Structure formats: structure tokens, C-alpha cells
Amino acid sequence: PTEWMDSENEERLPIYDKEIFEGDYYISIEDPRYEKIDRHYVASRGEFDTLRFDLVEKTPVKAFWKSMIIPGRGQIYSSSVNNKKRSIIGYAFITGAAGATAMMGSAWGDYSTAKNEFDEANQEYLKQKLIEDVQVARSIAEQKNSMMLEKQSTALLISGVWSLLWLGSAFEAWYNFCLLYTSDAADEEDS
């Protein structure tokens, strides 16, 4: 584009026989019902090109699978210019999943440490010969076992929350996609 051309041009599709000047162009096609297309195009002098873009319709199944792979991705996928809150929900799921993943890793690390401590205390208990030493080592092993089981329960609970967040994100993406685009289609029919 040259200095005297508009830096942006917005038109409705389809566009036929549009003459443009040579130069670099950034083409962006956005419609709430279709996946966004962003392309770079270089127009050369004297060439006549036909540009074709296949619009890919957004689907609830794709929203579901995107969120199954990365929680929140399906919500971002289903967001549009008309419904930006879906992106905010998506980023909230991503943040929640990252936090839950960190907590889960920490909890399982604590459990692993507690299990190693119990295994060492149990081995020490099994080595004892005198009754007094057996009782002391047994008491220590029982404490370590109790702590290990507590850490395991915490890790399992956090893993359950993590799983619910992951699955919840996927089903939320699918369900609300259906609601969003069903209501959009009904609104279009009414107008």
C-alpha cells in the first residue's frame, strides 16, 4: 500500500475483481461462526491472482477436544468479536489448570518423600533385635506411615480436583458452544 491508500479496508465477502496495488497485504477474515483466517499476501505488479480461502466452521466437538488437550483452549476457540467473555473464561481455565498442576506435582512430591521416609523407618524397625529397640522403631515407623498416608490422601484429593477441572473445561466448552451458537442461529432467523 502507498501513503495515499487507506491502511485498512473492510469489506463483506465474497469480493470479486478487486484491484489492489503492488505491495504487502495482511488479510484477516473473521466471522463468529468460522475459524479466524490470517494470511500474508504479496501482490506483484502486472500479476492477476485469485485468492481463495476455505472457511472452516467452528464445531462443539472441536471445542471439546481443544479443552481436553489444554483446559481453556476450547473456550478461547469459541470466543468471537461478539462474545469476548469466552476468552476470559478460557484464560481462567488455563490459569486454574496450571495452578492445579503445580499443586498436584508438589503434593505427589511430598508423598514420595514421606514414602521414602516410611520405607527407611520400616527397614530400621525390621532390623531391631531387642524388645525396647523394636518398640521405639515400631512407633517411629507407625508415625511415618501415618504421615505418608496423609500425604497420599492430599495428593489424591488434589489429583481429583485437577481431573474435574480438566474434564469440566472440556464439557463446559462443548455445552456452552452449543448454547452460544444455537442462540446466535435463532437470533439470525428472527431478524
- What level of helicity do the residues show? 55-70%
Q: What radius of gyration results from the CA coordinates?
A: 29 Å
Poorly predicted regions are none
Strand portion: 5-15%
Q: What is the tally of helical segments?
A: 4
Distance between the termini: 38 Å
Give the biggest sheet.
2 strands, antiparallel
Q: In which order are the strands of the major sheet placed?
A: 1-2
Kindly report the oligomeric state of this protein: single chain
Query: Average pLDDT across residues?
Result: 87
Structural category is mainly alpha
- Total number of strands: 2
3D shape = elongated
The helix/strand order is EEHHHH
Structure commentary:
The protein has helices at residues 60-69, 73-78, 85-127, 131-190; strands spanning 23-31, 34-43. A two-stranded antiparallel sheet has the order 1-2. By secondary structure, the chain is mainly α. The mean pLDDT is 87. The chain has four helices and two strands; from the N terminus they run ββαααα.
Q: What keywords describe this structure?
A:
191 residues; mainly alpha; two-stranded antiparallel sheet; 4 helices; elongated
List the helices and strands and how they pair.
Blueprint: E1 23-31, E2 34-43, H1 60-69, H2 73-78, H3 85-127, H4 131-190
Antiparallel strand pairs: 1-2
Short description:
The chain is mainly α and 191 residues long. Helices cover 62% and strands 10% of the residues. It contains 4 helices and 2 strands.
